[in-house]
Design goal:
Order of helices and strands: EHEEEEEEEEEHHE
CATH superfamily of one domain: Glutamate synthase, alpha subunit, C-terminal domain
Radius of gyration: 18 Å
Strand order of the largest sheet: 1-2-3-4-5-6-7-8-9-11-10
Low-confidence stretches: none
Shape: globular
Distance between the termini: 56 Å
Largest sheet: 11 strands, mixed
Strand content: 25-35%
Structural class: alpha/beta
Mean pLDDT: 91
Helix content: 10-25%
Number of helices: 3
Oligomer: single chain
Amino acid sequence: MKTIDATKKTYFQVNSEVRQAIDAGEKEFTINNVTGHRYIGTGLGGKDMKITINGTAGNDMAAFMNGPSIVVNGNAQDGVGNTMGAGEIVVHGNVGDVLGYGMRGGEVYVKGDAGYRIGIHMKSYRENFPIVVIGGGVGEYCGEYMAGGLLIVLGLGEGRAPYPVGDFVGTGMHGGAIYVRHGIGEVIVGKEVGLDRVKADPRLPKAVGRFAELFGYDKDELLRAEFIKLSPTTTRPYGKIYVY
């Protein structure tokens, strides 16, 4: 295992050390004293690769990543999992805005809260199916223009009153599904989605179970609560405003 100390190093130096170690055959990394260093894990491939980050990961962590797993013992900033294709991200704190932007596959689990526009432009295709599970609450425009995949907001802890999600949920959504634990008000939902109360859904237990396993929660207790499902009412929400 390769251990890297990020103290007094630029993000370029840290990522260069990771790349050099990979070229030498290393598969497992621990990066200590991370203080906003950007692009960690960006563009990396290989399912057998693991990175442990101790500190606060910077913007675009795991962008375009295609296979590795990343564990953050701390918080992460904006753009986590940007256009990610495969792999697993586990954050033991909070994350910033635009988590999972354009995400095409893989799984992201966040113990705490997330910022604005979570899951914007998420999409799925054939065997590629992205999953994002947020333990706390999220800000406005969650699932904006979402085209596929699964996004779950559990609302644990204090969350964001009065609901665990902010306004304009699912604006422009035309695929995939969003599940919100503990309910949601219709007034804050985008006009392109409908609401349903979920008694049982085969996709929930596995994703919620993995979250519970990672962060020490009781899976059955989490699943006993009512979930509200948000799904698009059309695959072409803005078709009438186009000129063709």
